[in-house]
Specification:
single chain; 78% helix
Length: 422
């Protein structure tokens, strides 16, 4: 299966890119939003536990807070294509900051309970369904076309590391005896600082398209029709759902169980594996972003194979004479790499191949499928482990990923060679 990928070092540099004021302000906003996302997510879990939430209640809270992010993501791109994308991201930051401040106020008043925590948490996190496709579609308006893959690489390189940094701030605030209400205020300020950074961007374009509900449905339909004309892009976006089922299930279910049951390590070692995933994504994003790739989208079909390789390492770990912890860390690095290999080429392909007035909708399809796949993936993988055991579940996912990669690539590129839109 030839991928026909040519890699060539680009003459562009991250320093020159960050020398552009508008991109730097946008980049700072993305850093802050990712930190705030991780900070808030762990704070919600922490607050639920302090309220005496059981394991089942905690699961319900987590599902209710994250599920709207996937469902509403389908509409996010349609909204992003009709409104000023910068103003939409600013609006989302204001909603996040205000929602977190309301939680802090309720906590100060001793009026916060599981219901309000879940309700407000769902509102805060659902804003990502709007801001994520808007941010992806906004990049081409602040950098030149030749700088897209470099810009995408730099932005993607910080998302997960900053998310993990934000999650770690909860532990730091606890060690410093910071009251939960004050921690919420700090989290709100992070979102407001992101809003200020976006507000300072100059020279944005205002959208003036029709804004009725029927118009949005029409826009979603037109976006899907446009996607169907790009066969390979359509296959990669729709098959992304299957990838995130395994990727998220591995990260949130299989990996922590592997750390405790197979490696016989304390539960805290799971955080080390997560950090390794973040490092893998950070380094690979910076490298891929600095390379010129002749056919970005073909590279995006390699993500499943890399994730399968990571799972193979986990399976054979106990049968080798090599240090088990080292192999587990290597597998975690590959898990992070697998996401980068898909995300950056796919983002760049959408920005290159889809018209600007439709790109937000395409990003929303991708974002929604990824979020839904992740939510469902935790249920599927946990069920697999329950019925057939951890080791067999990992073997099953390895086979599934390999098969899905071959089938998806075959569907995407068989009998379409020589066509203009792939």
């Amino acid at each position: 299966m030839a991928l026909d990928i040519e890699l060539e070092t680009s003459e562009l540099s991250y320093r020159k890119l960050l020398g552009q004021p508008n991109f730097t302000r946008f980049f700072l906003s993305q850093v802050l939003v990712s930190v705030g996302d991780g900070f808030f997510g762990v704070l919600v879990t922490f607050l639920a536990l302090t309220m005496g939430a059981s394991a089942s209640t905690l699961g319900i809270v987590a599902f209710c807070v994250t599920f709207p992010r996937g469902i509403l993501g389908i509409l996010g791109g349609a909204v992003a294509d009709q409104y000023d994308r910068r103003k939409l991201m600013v609006f989302c930051d204001v909603v996040r900051g205000s929602g977190v401040l309301i939680l802090a106020l309720l906590l100060f008043m001793n009026a916060l309970d599981i219901f309000f925590l879940t309700l407000i948490g769902a509102v805060v996190t659902s804003t990502y369904a709007l801001s994520k496709p808007a941010s992806k579609a906004y990049v081409p308006s602040i950098v030149e076309k030749k700088e897209l893959i470099l810009a995408n690489g730099l932005v993607q390189s910080v998302l997960w590391p900053c998310f993990f940094l934000g999650a770690g701030l909860v532990g730091v605030s606890g060690a410093l005896n910071v009251a939960p209400a004050n921690a919420l205020i700090v989290c709100a300020l992070i979102f407001f600082f992101s809003q200020m950074s976006l507000t300072s961007i100059k020279g944005h374009v205002t959208r003036t398209a029709a804004r009725t509900a029927f118009s949005m449905l029409q826009q979603l339909r037109s976006g899907w029709e446009e996607l169907l004309t790009h066969r390979a892009l359509m296959v990669r976006i729709t098959s992304y759902f299957l990838y995130t089922v395994s990727w998220r299930g591995t990260l949130q279910i299989a990996l922590p169980l592997y750390a405790v049951n197979t490696l016989n390590q304390p539960a805290t070692f799971y955080s080390s594996l997560m950090v390794a995933c973040g490092i893998g994504e950070l380094i690979s994003s910076l490298i891929i972003g600095k390379l010129r790739i002749s056919n970005n989208l073909r590279l995006a079909f390699c993500g499943e194979i890399i994730l399968a390789l990571a799972l193979i390492i986990l399976v054979v770990n106990s049968f080798t004479g090599l240090p088990a912890l080292v192999l587990a860390l290597i597998a975690s690095l590959l898990i992070g790499l697998s996401a980068t290999v898909i995300d950056i080429p796919l983002i760049t392909a959408i920005q290159h191949e889809i018209d600007d007035d439709k790109s937000g909708k395409i990003f929303s399809y991708w974002s929604a499928l990824g979020a839904l796949g992740g939510s469902i993936g935790t249920l599927i993988v946990s069920g697999l482990i329950y019925f057939i055991g951890l080791q067999n579940a990992i073997i099953f996912m390895t086979a599934w990923l390999t098969l899905s990669a071959v089938v998806a690539y075959g569907i995407a590129y068989t009998e379409v060679r020589g066509e203009g839109k792939q």
